[in-house]
């Protein structure tokens, strides 16, 4: 067992998870790019196309980290709210992007969002839902703050449907990723937790069912990079 008090585990205590992300904030985006073999850029483009932001809309990017994902929505002219529960991530995001006029940073708990009902035209969450200790409650909160007819896009690690490829993927995560993380990350133990959280996360149909249970309609998903990641979408039907 780690002696690091911020070493998160699958209990996903909010303070420990937040503290872990505070520690890796400065190098987080560079590390992710290395560990994903550059695929993070492709996943951001796919998420952007799925959200399809429009000028004048309000977009909530939850678990935005340093705002790298949020910046993809800025050129559309939408007003983007980059929310994250890690104060370290928010501080780093403001340092990098604080001068962007249609982008604001808000510290927020995914299970108790500090926003009004129906405040957003679209909500999105990339690689953050599995770090929430009550993801189904977070999905309900996201629906609460979305306008009737508004849309949700969740980009999250998942499980490759091919048994052979899944075996190769698990080998990379279990053997290669920890070694690379030690070389490029400021806190390699954080990536041990992230690997555990990916392994423990439910598959694509289960997450789709959670979204339907939270009240989202027209729920669908498609796999990216052979199912390493899945892009889930839905619509808030309103009442």
Describe the structure using short key phrases.
alpha/beta; 7-stranded mixed sheet; 239 residues
Explain the overall architecture.
- This protein has 239 residues and is of the alpha/beta class.
- It is 43% helix and 21% strand.
- It has nine helices and seven strands, in the order αααβαβαββαβαααββ.
- A seven-stranded mixed sheet has the order 3-2-1-4-5-7-6, with helices on both faces.
- Helix 5 links the parallel strand 2 and strand 3 (103-107).
- The protein is globular.
- Residues 1-11 have low confidence and may be disordered.
Helix content: 40-55%
Spans of at least 5 consecutive residues whose pLDDT stays below 50 are: 1-11
Taking the sheet with the most strands, its summary is: 7 strands, mixed
Give the overall shape.
Answer: globular
Q: Looking across the biggest beta sheet, what order are the strands in?
A: 3-2-1-4-5-7-6
Q: Into which percentage range does the β-strand content fall?
A: 15-25%
N-to-C terminal Cα separation, in Å?
Answer: 47 Å
Q: How many strand units?
A: 7
Q: Helices and strands, in N-to-C order?
A: HHHEHEHEEHEHHHEE
Q: Radius of gyration from the CA trace? A: 17 Å
Please count the helical segments.
9
Q: What class, by secondary structure content?
A: alpha/beta
Q: Taking all residues together, what is the mean pLDDT?
A: 85
Please describe the topology of this protein:
Elements: H1 14-24, H2 28-35, H3 39-51, E1 58-62, H4 68-71, E2 79-84, H5 87-97, E3 103-107, E4 120-126, H6 135-144, E5 146-157, H7 163-184, H8 188-200, H9 204-213, E6 217-224, E7 229-235
Parallel strand pairs: 1-2, 1-4, 2-3, 4-5
Antiparallel strand pairs: 5-7, 6-7
